[in-house]
Amino acid sequence: MADEQAPQSSLPEPGVIAPWDYSPEENSQLSEKAQQWLTTLCEKFAKRDMAARRFEVEQSWKAGMFKRGYQYLLPQKGGGWITWQAKNPETWNANPGLNTNIYTPYHDIIVSALTRDTPEVRFEPEDPENDGDITAADAAGDFIKVFERNNDLLTLHTDISSYLFTDGRSHVYTRYVKDAQQFGYEQETDEEPVVPEDEEQQQPPDPDTLSGQAASTEGMAQENTGGIQQESGQSSGKQPRGREVAEAFGKLSVKVPINTKKQSQWHALSLSREWDVSIAKATFPWIADKIAPSSSPGENELDRIARINIGLALGSSYVTGDSMVNDVTVQGVWFRPAAFMEVSDIPVRDELMGLFADKGGCLVVHAGKTFAFARPECMDDHWSVIKANPSDSMNCPGQGEWLIPIQERVNNLVDLLYAFFVATVPRKHFDSKAFNIEALKNQTNYPGESGPFVRQPGTPVSELVFIEPSPQHQPELPDFLWKMINEIAQLLTGAYPALSGGDTEGNDTASGIATQRDQALGRLGLVWHSIQAATANYHRQAVQCAARCRERDVKQLIGESDTVIIELNDLKGNVLCFPESDTSFPESWTQRQQRFTALLQDSKNPVIQTLLQLPNNLRVAKDAVGLTDFEIPQADSVDKQRGEFEVLMKTGPVPNPKLQQAQQLMQSAQMKGAPPEALQQAEQMIQQIPPEVSTVPVDPDWDDHEAEAATCGQFINSPTGRKMKNGTPEEQAGLANIALHGMEHKALIKAPQPQQKPVSEQISLKDLPPEGQQQMAAQAGIQITPQQVAARAIAEKPPAPIVQPGGPIQ
What we know:
Helices cover 46% and strands 12% of the residues. By secondary structure, the chain is α+β, with helices and mostly antiparallel strands.
C-alpha cells in the first residue's frame, strides 16, 4: 500500500489544478487485503441486477437520443441503438424518413413548468428545547442565502426536471469542493469589509472577481485535504478555496439497487463519470502514473458507451476513438456498513467495520482500474433521490416514456402523408410512335410553357398521352395525426397548453385561462412534491457540509448590500429541513407582478398604504415593477442601511465626542470663575447631550431617516436581532449599536427644534480670563493672542470710582 501511494513531490496537492471533493475525514490506511476486498465489493455491485440494469440503461439511452432528435432507432446486437440511416444507408438515401419532433417540445413545456421557481425550505431544530439546535436552525436559514448565491439552483432544477422526463429518476450529489482554478486561493488575512460610505473611493469590481473575493472569507480546511496532503507532495503554501456544490445526475451515471423502494434500503450506490485522463491525474496526483484510460471495475461496457454516446450527441451507439483513448471512468461507490457482511475474510471484515461502521459507511474511489482511496463517508449525507412517479422499484417510468411510441407513430404517419403529397406525383405515359421520348426528357417543363407537336391523323390527342390517377389518403388521416400530436400526447405527458398560457376550451377570459393553468399544474403535483422533498434534503446536506468542512466563519456579500455573517459553531447543531407549508406551485414573476398591480389599485386603503411603506415591501415593490431604470428612493435607503449593519455589528456604541468637549469647556469655565447662572444653564445643556453615539454617523441632510429607522427596527425585531439580544456580550453590544443608530434617525424625524446655542456660547467671553477667551475664539475660527484680549479688556473697562473718605462714591 505504501508503494502504491508513493509521494509525488513534483505534483501539486488536490484542489490546486483540478476540483477535489473534500472531506475532513482522512483517507483510511488499509491493509492490502482490505483494499482488494473493497475493489471486489465494487465489482460485485456493478454486476448485480445485470438484466434490469441493462433494461433501464437502454430506456434512458433511447429517451436521451429522442430528446436530441435522433428518433429513427433500431436495436443493435449486443445492446444499444443504431439509427436507421446508419444501418440502411442505401434505403435511407432513396426514401429518407422525416423527423417530426414532438418529444422535445413536450419535454421543454414540462421542464419549464417545474422550474418556474425553486421550492422554498425552512429549518427547524431537532430538539425544540435545545439552545444549540435552535441556534443552528436560525444560522442554517441564513446560510442558505450563501448556498443559493454560490449555486445556480435554477439550472440544477432544470437538470433534475429533464432527467425526470427522460430517465424517470434523478439524483442530487451535494458535497464540499475545493478548486483553486474556479474559486481561487484562500487569503491569508481577512480583509476589512467595504462599507457603503467607502465604495466611491474604489473602482467597481468585476462580478466574477467580486464572487471570488466574497468566497475568500468562507470556511476552508487548511490542515489536510482529506488525508492525502502528505501523499501528494508539493504544496504551494496557498490553500484553494472551497464551497458547497450540488449537482444532478441521471440513471446512466448512477446505479442503485433497483429492487428497492426508497434510499434507506440501499446497501450501495455508485457514481460513474468519464473524465479526460489529464483531469484524473491532476485529481489523484499520488497515483497519476498508474491512471490509464479504461472503465471502472466490473462495470458493463454498455453503460460507459451510453454515457459517452449521449455526451457526444452521436446518432448511434458509436464513440469516437479519441474519446475511448483519452477518457477514464472515475467511479465512486458508497457502501453502508451492512455491505461488509459480504466479506468472507473475518479479519478483513473486522478491519472494515472498525474503520467505517460508526461513520455510516465509506466511499471507495477508482480511477479506471486503479484504486485511488477509501475514506469514511455516509451516502445519506450527500445523496438525494427524486422519482418522477410512485413505484415499487427504482426503475420508475419517466414523464416522457409513454410519449416515445406516440413520437414513433407520428413520424411514420407524417412520412405516409408526405408521400401522398410528394412521392406519388402521377406518372405520365406517351405514345412511343407519336412522341420522341428521349427528346421529351431533354425538354424543360415550366408552368405556362408552350411547344409544337405533329398531329397524328385520325387519333385524338387524349389517346396519345395517359396520366396515372393520383392515390388519395384516408380522409381521417390528417385529423388522426393532429390528435396524436396534441390531445393524446398531452394526455400522456400532462403538458397541456394551459401550462404555457394557451387555451384548450375556447375560454378567452383571464380567470378561465388561470383556472385551466392551475388544473394543468395539478397534474404535475406528484413530481413536484418529490422535487420539494429532495430540495429540503440537499439544503440540509449543504448546511451539514459547511459545518463539517469549513474552518472559518461565513462572511459573504449577497446581492448589492446584504452581507451574511455566521459563526461556524452556530451551524453545528442538529436541524431538520422541510419544504414550505404551501406545497402549491410557485408563482411566476408575471403572476407576482399582476398581484402587485392589483394591490396598487387599492392604494387608497390606509392599511395598504401602511404596508407599502414598510422597508422590505419597498424592495419587493421595486422588483415587482420590473423596470431596471425605475427608482424607489426608499428602497435604495433600505439597501444602504442594510450595508451599514455590518459595521454597526462589529462593536458597541462609542462615547459622544461632543459631550466630552462640552464637559471640558464646563470645567474650564468653573476654574475661571464663570457666573453661577451661566454654569447652571450650561449644565442643563450638557444633560441633553447623549452620552454615546453609534459608530456610523447619521447624515442629517441627505439620509432618509424614516426608511432607515424602520429598517433598524425590523432588524431588531427579526429572528437575528432577537438572537443577538440574548447572545454573547459582543452580539448584545452590536445590537445596542444598531438600536442607537436607529434612534439617531428617529430623533431627526421629529419636528425641527429651535436651534440652541452650544454650551461654549452660553458662557460669556467676559466671564472668562484672557486664556479662556482665546480658546473659545479659536473654536469660532478667530485667531487672537492673550495680549490682544487683555488690551481689549483694559480698554473696555470702566474708570474706577473715586472714593473720598467719609463721602459717597462719585
